[in-house]
Amino acid sequence: MSAAGANSKESPGRMLSTFDRYLTWRLLHTFAMLFIATYGLYVVIDLFMNIDEFQENSLKGLTAADAGRQLELFRQIGIYYLYRAFDFFELAGSILVVISVIAVLALIRKSSETFPLLAAGVPAFRLLRPLLLTTAGLNLLLAINQELVIPQLAVQLQTPRGSRIASVQQVEPVYDYSNYMMHISGDQVLLDKRLIMGASFAVDARELSSRPFVMKAERARYIRDTARSGRNGWLLEDLTAVLDPEILTAVGRRRITPSANGRDAFVESDVTFEQLYNRGRNMKLLSSWELVQQIQNPSTGLNPLRARSLALHSRITRPLLSLLSVTIALPLVLRRESSSLIANMAVCAGVLGCSFGLTHVAIALGGSGVIEPALAAWLPVIVNGMASPWTASLVQT
Q: Do 148 and 40 touch, CB atoms closer than 8 A?
């Protein structure tokens, strides 16, 4: 047996050979360099386009004579883009993983590092082990970032450039489908106190009242009381007008309860505080568990339900698509029918580009209701799964 053949053998119980560890390190290094380069380019472009906004917001209250003006500006810029790094990692991470794999395969092909392995009888697909393991590890980091980090940074990621923490946000009005399309809105939400200021609850359903009316209150807070009364809902404090209980139907009296002082009222509702500002609308700021809770919430409408179902399925299929893309990329970059690395890279980029386009078309169709959200998320996995064995026959041996 040749020395190359002996070196390609792993001892029992040994997971990765020296060459496997070499590929793993090279892939991690390539991914890190690509991430730093692309995020750095994003920071430069975004900062160039929005430097005036940073100066306007970060220097409020500081005069031209203050020595710390420039230091405060740099500090706000650093904090802003530090938080945005996690958002960018979520946005571009899966694409950069696949590009890193293609780059590593191209580099080892360019330097003829695959020929000794093939000459020793090691199949080209043996390279998939370290590549797939590293890809799975990077996708695990993406999942941790999405499920644990980004939900904790939701407020910081919604803070305008150069501003302090955005403790006040505009209300995103919603219809409560569990309350016969009751319309809930307000002036603004206080994130730290979890209050709606200038709350407005519009009732326009005959099931709840004999005539339409609007309950306006100085503030409203969401109360969970499932342990005692089994009711969740909003406590409206300091109503601008006294609520007349005579206009409420039997169903309305069960769901809308005026207080004894005549200035407060309790409205039973499944619309939570998070659904009334941007975090509840922006799926990337929600963990998968929060998405499941909103899907199961009876107050969620058809369109929001479709969007959340699509987002949940897409999170499940993302690592699968990444792994399948790696299995497709290897035989296309290491094609036996072509000695031109540039041609191989072009073919690989074209095939994976079509796969990327199919994914976005399917998501668009699922979001618009043309196809079911589950089918929209899993269709690219099915197509890539069929393409992977087809491209396997093209690999160099």
A: no
Residue 281 in domain: no
Please count the CA atoms within 13 angstroms of the CA of 61 that sit on its side-chain side.
6
Model confidence over 128-174: pLDDT tens digits?
Answer: 999 999 999 999 999 999 999 999 988 888 887 877 766 778 888 88
**Do 368 and 318 fall within a single domain?**
yes
pLDDT digits (tens, 9 = 90+) for 307-366: 999 999 999 999 999 999 999 999 999 888 777 889 989 999 999 999 999 999 999 999
Note down the domain range covering 72: 14-161+309-392
**Which of 32-52 are b and which e, b meaning 16 or more Cβ less than 10 Å from the residue's Cβ?**
eebbeeebeebbeeeeeebee
150 and 203 in a single domain? The answer is: no
Question: Do 152 and 205 fall into the same domain?
Answer: no
In a domain, 285, yes or no: no
* Residues near 13 by beta carbon (within 8 Å), at least 6 away in sequence: none
Helices (H), 185-301: 250-255, 278-281, 288-296
d(CA 179, CA 254): 11
CA torsion sign for 65, 69, 70, 71 is positive
Confirm if 180 and 207 have CB atoms less than 8 A apart.
Answer: yes
Residue 2 lies in a domain: no
Q: DSSP characters for 114-132?
A: HHHHHHTT--GGGGHHHHH
CA angle 53, 164, 294 (to 5 degrees): 105
> Same domain for 148 and 21?
yes
pTM for the structure as a whole: 0.82
Residues 272 and 190 in one domain: yes
Strands 168-170 and 188-190, bridge-based pairing: antiparallel
Candidates 108, 129, 140, 145; CA nearest to 24 is 129
pLDDT-derived band at 2 (thresholds 50, 70, 90) equals very low
Is residue 30 one of the residues assigned to a domain? Answer: yes
Contact 220, 234 (CB under 8 A): yes
Report the alpha-carbon distance of residue 140 to residue 148 in Å, rounded: 12
Based on the domain organization, do 83 and 193 belong to the same domain? no
- Pair 112, 42 in one domain: yes
d(CA 27, CA 99): 10
